[in-house]
From TrEMBL:
GO biological process: lysine biosynthetic process via diaminopimelate; nor-spermidine biosynthetic process; spermidine biosynthetic process
CDD domains in the cross-refs: PLPDE_III_CANSDC
The protein, known as: Carboxynorspermidine/carboxyspermidine decarboxylase
Record family assignment: Belongs to the Orn/Lys/Arg decarboxylase class-II family. NspC subfamily.
Occurrences of domain Orn/DAP/Arg decarboxylase 2 C-terminal (ranges): 206-342
Signal is among the record's keywords: no
EC number(s) from the headed UniProt entry: 4.1.1.96
Keyword ATP-binding recorded: no
Binding residues annotated for substrate, in chain numbering: E249, D286
Length: 387
C-alpha cells in the first residue's frame, strides 16, 4: 500500500469531503498481530472504546478480540449492542444505579477508589451480582512525560496506591487493573511490572485476573512483541492469573485517514494561508491539546518543498491552525489533503463546535476495491445536541 494508492482512493468522487476513512486491510494487519500476541501469550486483548468506537468495524474486530472496555454507560451500551462478547468497565466514578445495572450485565467492573468500593461492596457481594469486581491500582510509576497524559502524576484521580491498600479486606475483589502507559513499548511495561510486582505482588496471588490497561503501542513497527509475550506469560504463570490488555490506539493505529479539501487560499501577514473544510478544534483536537503535528501525504516541513502553506480550519477560533506544510505543487481550491493516522482518538473526539459539518465515516475494502460511506452528517446532528 503506497502513498499513491491511498491518495487515489481518497480522491475518488464517491468519498465525501471531509471524511474519516478506515482501510480495512490495514485494520486487519493490526488485528492479525494482536491475534498473534493472544495466541503466543495466552493473554486476552479487548478494545478500549474511548480510543476507537467506529462500530461498523466491530464485526471485523470481533473475529480477533473477545470484547470491549468502557469508561462510561454509553460506551458500555455500545459494547453490549454492537460488539458483544465480554464488556469490561472502568469508570473514574460510578453512580450507584450504574453499578446496579452493570453488575447484571458486565463481565468485569474495575473500581477506581476505596471510597467507591466501600459504597458498592454490598452490591458486589450480593447473590444477584453476576460481574467480577476489580480495583484499579496506582503503581506510582509512569514514564509518560506529558502531564495531561500521565495517570500517575501527583494528585492523580486514578487508582489506589499500595499504602492505601494496606490492611484492606479484599473479599469480593477478583482482579487488579492498572493503566499507566501511553504510546509506549514493552520495555516500559517491563519496568512498570517490576513496580507492580514489588508493590502489589502479595495481592496478585489471591486474584483471578490482572488488567494491564492500554497505552501498549503493539502495532507500531518497532514494538518489541516478543518481550510483551514473555511478560504476559510471566504474569500468568507466576500468579496463576488471566491477563488482559485493553489498548485503543494500537487497534486502529495507522489504519485511517482524514480527507479534507481546500476551501480558500490567500495571503495573510507573512504567510500563505489555505483554509480547509476540516478543523483542528472540531475534528482533530489533539493537534491543539497534545499538541502534535499530524502527517499529510505528500506534505513536507515548512519550506522543505517549493510551496508552503499554513493550513487553517474553518471555525472562528483564532487558534484553529493545523500547522505549516510544504508541497511540490501549489494547492488549488478543491485540492484534497490526506491526514494520516486519524482513525483512533480523532473520530471519537469530534464536536459540532461552530456548527461545522462533522466528517463522514467511511471504510475502504481492498478485496472489492470498494469505498463504503457508513455515515454522513447534517444540520440535524448539530441541532440534536442542543435545545
Ligand atoms: C485510555 C485508556 C485505555 C486505552 O488507551 P490507549 O492509549 O488508547 O491504548 C485503556 N484503559 C484505560 C483505563 C484508559 O483510560
Amino acid at each position: 500500500m503506497t502513498d499513491q494508492d491511498i491518495l487515489s482512493i481518497c480522491n475518488r468522487a464517491e468519498l465525501p469531503s471531509p471524511s474519516f476513512i478506515v482501510h480495512r486491510g490495514l485494520l486487519q494487519n493490526n488485528l492479525d498481530l494482536l491475534g498473534d500476541v493472544q495466541n503466543r501469550s495466552g493473554g486476552k486483548i479487548i478494545l478500549a472504546l474511548k480510543g476507537f468506537a467506529m462500530f461498523s468495524t466491530f464485526p471485523q474486530i470481533r473475529q480477533t478480540l473477545c470484547g470491549t472496555t468502557a469508561s462510561s454507560m454509553a460506551e458500555a451500551q455500545l459494547g453490549f449492542d454492537e460488539f458483544g462478547g465480554e464488556v469490561h468497565t472502568y469508570f473514574v466514578a460510578y453512580r450507584k444505579e450504574e453499578i446496579r445495572q452493570l453488575s447484571q450485565q458486565a463481565h468485569h467492573i474495575s473500581i477506581n477508589s476505596l471510597s467507591q468500593w466501600l459504597q458498592f461492596k454490598e452490591i458486589a457481594l450480593s447473590a444477584e451480582n453476576k460481574a467480577s469486581y476489580g480495583l484499579r491500582i496506582n503503581p506510582e510509576y509512569s514514564e509518560v512525560e506529558t502531564a495531561i497524559y500521565n495517570p500517575c502524576r501527583i494528585g492523580t484521580r486514578f487508582g489506589i496506591t499500595a499504602s492505601q491498600l494496606d490492611g484492606v479486606d479484599l473479599s469480593g475483589i477478583d482482579g487488579l487493573h492498572f493503566h499507566s502507559m501511553c504510546e509506549q513499548n514493552s520495555d516500559t511495561l517491563q519496568r512498570t511490572l517490576e513496580q507492580v510486582e514489588a508493590k502489589f505482588g502479595k495481592y496478585l496471588h489471591q486474584m483471578k485476573w490482572l488488567n494491564m490497561g492500554g497505552g501498549h503501542h503493539i502495532t507500531r513497527p518497532d514494538y518489541d512483541v516478543d518481550l510483551l509475550v514473555q511478560l504476559i506469560k510471566h504474569m500468568r504463570e507466576t500468579y496463576q492469573l488471566k491477563v488482559y490488555l485493553e489498548p485503543g490506539e494500537a487497534v486502529a493505529l495507522n489504519t485511517g485517514f482524514l480527507v479534507a479539501s481546500v476551501l480558500d487560499i490567500f495571503q495573510s501577514g507573512d504567510r500563505q494561508l489555505a483554509i480547509l473544510d476540516t478543523s483542528a478544534s472540531a475534528h482533530m483536537p489533539d493537534v491543539l491539546e497534545m499538541p502534535y503535528r499530524p502527517e499529510i501525504i505528500g506534505g513536507g516541513e515548512a519550506n522543505e518543498k517549493k510551496y508552503t502553506y499554513e493550513l487553517g480550519g474553518h471555525t472562528c477560533l483564532a487558534g484553529d491552525i493545523i500547522g505549516q506544510w510544504s508541497f511540490d505543487q501549489p494547492l488549488e481550491i478543491g485540492s484534497r489533503l490526506v491526514f494520516t493516522d486519524m482513525a483512533h482518538y480523532s473520530m471519537v473526539k469530534t464536536t459540532t463546535f461552530n456548527g461545522v459539518q462533522l466528517p463522514s465515516i467511511a471504510s475502504y475494502f481492498p478485496a472489492e476495491d470498494k469505498i463504503e460511506v457508513s455515515r454522513s452528517y447534517g444540520y440535524e446532528d448539530y441541532k440534536s445536541r442542543l435545545s
